[in-house]
Amino acid sequence: MWLYLRMVLKVTKILAFQSLSGIYSAREFVWWYNGHPDYSSLKPDLKSSDTAVILGQGNVALDVARILLRPTTELASTDIARHALSVLEESSIRKVYLIGRRGPVQAALTAKELREVLGIKNLRIRIKETDLSLTPADEEEMKNSRARKRIYELLSKAAAAAAGTSEADPDQRELHFVFFRQPDRFLESDERKGHVSGVNLEKTILESVGSGKQIAVGTGEFEDLNCSMVLKAIGYKSVPINGLPFDHKKGVVPNVRGRVVSQTSGDISQTEPGLYVCGWLKRGPVGIIATNLYCAEETVGSISEDIEEGVCKSSKAGSKGLMELLEKRKVKKVEFSGWEKIDAKEKQMGIEKNKPREKLVTWEDLLAAAAN
């Protein structure tokens, strides 16, 4: 109970400072540089200092760091949104800190995404040597997980390579992996009222909770990390849907291979006929695009089995029934033919600028392209 109350108080303290400018969710930032119409007008501050802090060490955090640190001459030939590229070209950010509560063995990222970041030109990787020290519990985790071992090896190799080079030149960019730290509160600038100027971090240690799992526990020691920009990439959690059972601890709808579980008695789970779940609501916010594909295939497989066995009655209405339902509910829609027009328009615009595509970033432009 004490640990729970302490966590609640810590989150409350952090939330109290979220009104400071310069603090963004990674989701907002990703949507901004990917051209999402709802976030194309976001104006992230990339010029106030040379340092940005990212809270989290998962794939989303890595992707955000990649965008901030990759040379804009390379980004120019990708499908990044034009407005984002213009801002990044004027960016003063040269140092990015990725903050994680646990150690390198527990970092929640994948090797493919890590290699892509480590391969950025003229980028120096910085990791404290002490953070790479392994405990017997770490060794056990790596023994049981080839992926964790590979991540640790990649980070260790990158740190060793950086240590063997001369001091960085003024134009070289730096990516700092900071382990065993958790955010306590955001700091407000004295010069710029209402703007973030840093993050107060609490040092952590790992404690075993059985089954080979280790959790981060605060030590009561704190330090400040100055920056002008903070990006929160500490994960997602699904919220309940009215009428559906929900596991609040795991943040998922209880299910068996995608079939929603209405109740459980001992080892027997009773599923709700005709009700299915997929994605993060099914398994939690983990995995990459390929994980979602396998997840969807499993749920679709369950639906097919239930239709064949008569458990789930298939609808005869098909696409016609769907269109009638959308019409009845007055839902505006863009049909596939409209999406194809948007796709063709963006690709044509991209050819003119030697890019895979030039994204349309307003609803007006998207709907206009779909209607032509």
Summary keywords:
372 residues; alpha/beta; six-stranded parallel β-sheet; 13 helices; 21% strand
Brief account:
The chain has 372 residues and is α/β, with parallel strands linked by helices.
Describe the structure.
The chain has 372 residues and is an alpha/beta fold. Helix content is 38%, strand content 21%. It contains 13 helices and twelve strands. Strands 1-9-2-3-5-4 form a six-stranded parallel beta sheet. Strands 6-7-8 form a three-stranded antiparallel beta sheet. Strand 11 and strand 12 form a beta hairpin. Helix 2 crosses helix 3, helix 7 packs across helix 8 and helix 12 crosses helix 13. The chain is globular, with a radius of gyration of 24 Å. The protein starts with a helix and ends with a helix.
